[in-house]
Write a structure and sequence with these properties.
Layout (H helix, E strand, L loop, with lengths): L12 E2 H8 L5 H13 L2 H9 L8 E2 L1 H11 L3
Antiparallel strand pairs: 1-2
C-alpha cells in the first residue's frame, strides 16, 4: 500500500509512462493493456479513480490519480 514514506515523487504522467514503470519488461502497448486490466478488475480502484475525475479515454493520469493507483497497486 502507498504511504508517505514512498521514495517516488507523485506527478502527473501518461498512462504509458506509469504502465511501463509497473512493467518495464513489456512493450509500451502491452504495459498499458496490463495496467488497464489491473484497474478494471479492481472495482474499488475504479471507483476511487472515477471519483478523482478519471475516464477510460484519458491519456494522462493526474497526480491525484497516480497516488490512488499506487495506494491500490503499490509503488512500481
Amino acid at each position: 500500500m502507498y504511504n508517505e514514506e514512498m521514495n517516488m515523487d507523485i506527478v502527473p504522467m501518461s498512462k504509458q509512462e506509469l504502465a511501463q514503470m509497473y512493467a518495464p519488461d513489456l512493450t509500451p502497448r502491452a504495459a498499458v493493456n496490463r495496467l488497464a486490466k489491473w484497474i478494471k478488475i479492481n472495482p474499488a480502484l475504479v471507483k476511487a479513480l472515477e471519483a478523482a475525475g478519471y475516464v477510460k479515454q484519458s491519456k494522462i493520469f493526474t497526480s491525484k490519480q497516480v497516488k490512488i493507483i499506487m495506494e491500490y497497486l503499490g509503488e512500481p
